Amino acid sequence: MTEAKKVSLVLEDGTRFEGVSFGYEKSVAGEVVFYTAMTGYPESLTDPSYTGQILVSTFPLIGNYGVPSDELKNNINEFYESNKVHISGLIISDYSAEYSHWNAIKSLGDWLKESNVPGIYGIDTRALTKILRVKGSMLGKIEFEDDAIEFYDPNAENLVAVASTKEKEVYGDGEHKVVLVDCGVKNNIIRCLLNRNATVIRVPWDYDFTQEEYDGVFLSNGPGDPAKCGTTVENIRKAIAMEKPIMGICLGNQLLARAAGAETYKLKFGHRSHNQPVLLNGTDRCFITSQNHGYAVAPDSLPADWEPMFINVNDDTNEGIRHKTKPFFSTQFHPEACSGPVDTEYLFDEFIENIVKFKKG
């Protein structure tokens, strides 16, 4: 048995946690954030929205159901949300090297080693999460002995350019042509569109998709600061002028808002969980949603012809916007979930219905 190697997590305020390595043994730096989901670590670790981040799981036991296969269906990974692990590092309380699941082919630790991503267990994640809740998301670094590194702020660069596809790709051959602006898209967004008779035209974040022949535009999730995606915002403005249906998710909500003329801002510690309650504006309908974001839309900055669509019940932050008369809307949460609840997947149906209505004139 390999001897456990000691490793440290150091926060920018000087706080230090000592733990044991179970992943790849290299020092890394990034933004330390926490998520409260109890399950779904294969999906979370492959979510491009976590690019540049050291992820802390508040659920104490991780790894007990291993990691699934990486088989493809419709030319995308069937059980992952992208084709690789996107987090910079993983921090957990207790690691289960033994795993049991019908679809598991390897342990979480082996997967992290193959992906060159460090992992630490034996950390008091309750204490760590309390620090992040009080002080907000912080810069941090996972350090091994004799491998000292500097702190690194991933939000200082355009992470969308890192996470986005590099070239146009087409999925399916459905009736409805949907341009998917890939800012760091999750695979289940593509699956949900394919399941609704769509041809998905996936394009890079800075691609002028208005030159394509399409029936609707889908703005994906993704990492980092929406203010750094000026090219995308300009293309969305052109799409708004064309009046074809638009739907956005997560970062897509923020980009649509900025294209409409609104402002965005950084949240103290973000929303990363499977149990965020949101209220449909103007109703008593509440939904439990999956979320992963560190920025939000300032609703007071929305122009007069736009309005909030959903509101977070916990902190009253914006959870979606819509145009008052045209077929444009977006959500800050993830209707496609994966992992998480699928209470709001019906919004994909509304997007397709908007396309059908538009095509009929």
TrEMBL record:
One of the Pfam families matching this protein, by short name: CPSase_sm_chain
Alphabetized GO MF terms: ATP binding; carbamoyl-phosphate synthase (glutamine-hydrolyzing) activity; glutaminase activity
Pathway: Amino-acid biosynthesis; L-arginine biosynthesis; carbamoyl phosphate from bicarbonate: step 1/1; Pyrimidine metabolism; UMP biosynthesis via de novo pathway; (S)-dihydroorotate from bicarbonate: step 1/3
Region called CPSase, residue ranges: 1-176
Catalytic activity: L-glutamine + H2O = L-glutamate + NH4(+); hydrogencarbonate + L-glutamine + 2 ATP + H2O = carbamoyl phosphate + L-glutamate + 2 ADP + phosphate + 2 H(+)
Assembly and interaction partners: Composed of two chains; the small (or glutamine) chain promotes the hydrolysis of glutamine to ammonia, which is used by the large (or ammonia) chain to synthesize carbamoyl phosphate. Tetramer of heterodimers (alpha,beta)4.
Family that this chain belongs to: Belongs to the CarA family.
Protein name (database record): Carbamoyl phosphate synthase small chain
Species of origin: Mangrovibacterium diazotrophicum
Lineage: Bacteria, Pseudomonadati, Bacteroidota, Bacteroidia, Marinilabiliales
Name of the gene encoding the protein in the UniProt record: carA
